[in-house]
């Protein structure tokens, strides 16, 4: 974080509802202290951000190690469940060192894509077989350190993962995910410390991975700390069917009964829901994290995001399996999927999609003072080039539409986190060769 005051001049700025030309920001100690409009030229000494500057993007759902699966899982057919076998084989090979290297490179790729905060849904806790490391949080610490080195904020969503299915013990692959029970999970992750760039939250892997009678323990842990609580919810119909068979209710109903739903909770995917589920989720203020590029990659289906939002569920976005890392693509995919399903256009405006990618995404991760360009907020910014081959042409007043519907991660010119340039002119300032770091980290995990 910068201790000395700084001035930024934004050629065009997204101020939540409109694009404003010529905006000057004063920044001190990583926070915006003043926003001045009507400044057509950069003040002397100002950092100049040419293009359209948005608040930093929040990637609300990540499993960093899935980055090692990119492309190689695109061969052959199958379902989510066959993909999961390949994913487990990669998880088996992770160590704190190899995970640190892969996460550092993956988070650097995120910074290059304009992501300033990541929600890491983290469940690979222990050594293969389930033996704790000397530091039982060695894996979580590796992720927190990786985020610091890549210059992004992280909310470590430390995940409870105890069973392979309703009443079933963990499989061999899953032993390293399990703490044994929710109390042991709470003891371990209570030791994790928050830092300037890192928040600690909780996650329930899914209703199939945490026995019903232990759900309240996790909900209480998050409640006591006022920490975010995330849960994979109804991504697959098989999970719904098993939940009905064992508990006689849907996963959303089971979570509601055990006190898991609420405004600090986010359901990830929320794909296969009943009308009552949608009311339960929306009515409780539970958020919905959509991961459209993963959901389409894994042939999951299209979740009812519009209906959930109408019932009161705030929306956020995540790149999840990292088939691609591009929050602009996630944002437009949510709208475009809904167009395909309904054969009508215009379910979300560009402004609404940016809200999910910025302020509501940050709130889902417990960063309530981030995601807006306003005095008092954190100086987390991303600048999109408006003069690239993809983005040239529209008037700057259509900058939000250009960013959401035409730009890609490749159009990110600058990323600023807490007043520090993490990406300048398309180059990462802390990780010198991100493609090289990714290649080496993935190679180290190859069978
Ligand atoms: Zn996930």
What's the topology here?
Layout: E1 6-14, E2 19-28, E3 31-36, E4 47-55, E5 57-62, H1 80-92, H2 96-112, E6 115-122, H3 138-150, E7 153-160, H4 182-189, E8 198-204, H5 215-225, E9 229-233, H6 237-247, H7 251-257, E10 265-269, H8 275-283, E11 287-290, H9 292-297, H10 305-310, E12 315-317, H11 327-342, H12 350-357, H13 359-364, E13 381-384, H14 399-405, E14 412-417, E15 420-424, E16 427-428, H15 434-443
Parallel strand pairs: 1-4, 5-6, 6-7, 7-8, 8-9, 9-10, 10-11, 11-12
Antiparallel strand pairs: 1-2, 2-3, 4-13, 13-14, 14-15, 15-16
Helix pairs in contact: 2-3, 2-15, 11-12, 12-14
Bound molecules: zinc ion (ZN).
Summarize the amount of helix as a percent range.
25-40%
User: Which cofactor or ligand species appear?
Assistant: zinc ion
Beta fraction of the residues?
A: 15-25%
Average pLDDT reading: 96
SS-based structural class?
alpha/beta
Give the overall shape: globular
Extended strand count:
16
Distance between the termini: 39 Å
**Quick one: biggest sheet?**
8 strands, mixed
Q: Helical segment tally?
A: 15
Poorly predicted runs of 5 or more residues: none
Write up what this structure looks like:
- This protein is of the alpha/beta class.
- It contains 15 helices and 16 strands.
- The strands form two sheets. An eight-stranded mixed β-sheet has the order 3-2-1-4-13-14-15-16. Strands 5-6-7-8-9-10-11-12 form an eight-stranded parallel β-sheet.
- A hairpin with a 2-residue loop joins strand 2 and strand 3 (31-36).
- Helix 11 crosses helix 12.
- The longest helix is centred in the N-terminal third of the chain and has 17 residues, at 96-112.
- The structure holds zinc ion.
